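Fold this sequence, please.
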Amino acid sequence: MKTQQQQKEIRKIDVESIEVRSNEEESYLIEGYINKFNTRSQFMGFFEQVDRNAFNRTLADGHNIFGLYNHDSSKILGSTKTSSLTLSVDEVGLRFSLNINPNVSYAKDTYELVRSGDVEGCSFGFFVTDDEWSYLEDGTELRTIKDLDLVEVTITPFPAYLTSEASCRSYEVFKQNELEVHKQAELRKKLILKTYL
């Protein structure tokens, strides 16, 4: 089902671990996965997952994507425009590498917080351009994000997968459509019964 979302959605996920390293050139790198494929969200009234092709178009179009600390646009850690942030899709998910500038105090602080293990979460902000709803075996609804516009990726101390108003609106549209289909089916049944009685 195609949905036009105008509100940015934010997902914070527990990626189990992100790692830091410094190399001989004294670069400070934070690396890990922003999103892992075949991983469902926490229950939000429904489950959600990201299709393995959802990032392809947005990464290929060349627009600038920021690396931030805790979704704070005043705390830029890097960007794809300057190549201080690199993003790639592999068989596991959307992988990132942030080359931190140690001369920026909050960036160096972020690096040290990740190194110490006090901060170990990742998140991403995006606009959904295409999603699909289905049912799991137990009847729970599952939203699959098929395509999105990626705006930013974030290092965050709160690695919980959160809901958003935009995803809730998509869910409401799905439920309204489902109700309408059910009503139409009931009307058809009544018309058929009326015809044969």
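The helical segments are 56-60, 105-116, 165-196. The longest strand covers residues 141-156.
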